Amino acid sequence: MLHLLAALLAAAPLTQCFSHAAIPPLPIPPRISAGDGARLHSQSGEELPPVDTVYTFDQLIDHNNPGLGTFQQRYWSNWEFYQPGGVIVFNTPGESNAEGYMPFLTNDSINGQIAQAHNGATVMLEHRFYGFSNPLPDLSVESLRFHTIQQAIDDLEYFAKNAKLPFPGGDQVGPDKVPWVLVGGSYAGALTAFTNVNKPGLFAAYYASSAVVESITNLWAWFEPVRLHMPQNCSLDVQAAIARFDSILTGKNQTAISALKASFGLEDLAHPEDFAVALKNNLWAWQFLGPSSGDDASVFYDFCDALEVVDGANAGPNGRGGEYALAAWGKYWTDGYYTSLCGDMDAETCLGSYNASDTYFTSTAIDNYDRSWMWIVCNEMGFFQNSAPFPHPTLVSHVWQDSDDERTCQLFFPTAFPRPTPPPVERTNFAYEGWNVHTTNIYFGNGQRDPWMYATVSSPFTYVPDTPEQSIGLSEGGFHCSDMITLEGQCDASVLAVQKKGLAAIARYLAEWKAAKTGAY
Ligand SMILES: *[C@@H]1O[C@H](CO)[C@@H](O)[C@H](O)[C@H]1NC(C)=O
Ligand SMILES: *[C@@H]1O[C@H](CO)[C@@H](O)[C@H](O)[C@H]1NC(C)=O
Ligand SMILES: *[C@@H]1O[C@H](CO)[C@@H](O)[C@H](O)[C@H]1NC(C)=O
Ligand SMILES: *[C@@H]1O[C@H](CO)[C@@H](O)[C@H](O)[C@H]1NC(C)=O
Hints:
This protein is α/β, with parallel strands linked by helices. 36% of the residues lie in helices and 12% in strands.
């Protein structure tokens, strides 16, 4: 099966995979390029290596058994603003090949803004088991034993304490000598908070954007910010269309079921679950929105226009009703959406989730973030994205259920999951405190339009207080990790306010770190 939205997202530096079966990873979307990479030092004017210069670090394969040896973990660094004694702004982009994330080295991102404000250097480490930073040469279950949140946290510590950074004096800047700021967004935002919980005092300050700190088996509320912030007519019509879809698909009228499949061009798709989950692709596109998303935004809004616009006229606030909307949704698929999703593949190959010999499930080749992320989904974090509990309004079908996600875990990793098993999220929330996080020197930046908001400290499901030592910013206009991207703040005043609050919190934590170091307390 094919999972690339490449055709849709060709303009984005990240080509993101959305499969009907795998849980989409939590991409941080820097949509801007870091220029040609060439930099001059801000003070000396000296020419620096391009920001995309790759360095490698000998990282331990297994932090529980250093005797197993090391692997080469890739990293990048930019020291255009660095002066001796300045901060080290440290980041992993998390569950992706890091090559698309060069803006995290420059002041196109909050990382670079922190570096610029504090004479700092930026350092970006590729997360183990993503891209070309692999402890072992494949992504087999045997190798993935070393793919845990804890090993990733230990990587951050071991790197910080042992790396000889590529700039002058870079072998003398461990976190005991100069202040380090750990920055992360999305899963890596959670990792940032988890590191603070797990290794108190390791770094001077932490900036966690859209950090999904609470692991949740079915994060049905992924779709709540979408439901509440998308055009109202489209939201109501999707809900009505899905209610109709579910009633047909779970009914006994085979003629109606066949007609519904045909209206989407999916006659050949054998399993109703696969039909149901395929429709989530149109809603997952919300993740790419942000004030500066440009062409990416059209992926989501074209879909709404297909449901709401007739002969140039918008539907009113209540939409056009489920019958019309479901038919229009099907037409949108046959008019080009299917091709953009699946190319010339047949529906079963592209969208089916029952073929255990499909190479999508069996391939253990590296640089495959669907597989590496699913390992974390299935073993530690969950984050299935299924229907809301009845009778809460839902944008997605009830036909694909949590058990289907568990079945998918088994398809990917049959030897690890001989039977479908719910992810043990309680263990993760216990180990790293989830919403009970109560720590210091950390800033959480969130956005109300972020589909992941309900797993963050700003979730309406919990109450985490905003305090001077654990500061929280929430923007009305922010989407997923918006506050990490400089341009997003320039486009939206509420995102800018969250960035400013975060920069002030980090400055405060750094001042406290320095005061404690020099005994000035
Ligand atoms: C960002 O950094 C560039 C140098 O790479 C500099 O020219 C520019 O002024 C900086 N932006 C701001 C807002 O300081
Ligand atoms: C079954 O569905 C078809 C197509 O929607 C419809 O024409 C027919 O009346 C339905 N049959 C019954 C028994 O409801
Ligand atoms: C109705 O749908 C159109 C097209 O997607 C959208 O532009 C408009 O904002 C919507 N209006 C309301 C009130 O939801
Ligand atoms: C299952 O996948 C394999 C490998 O891609 C393929 O050869 C086979 O035809 C598929 N079977 C079905 C029923 O689609």
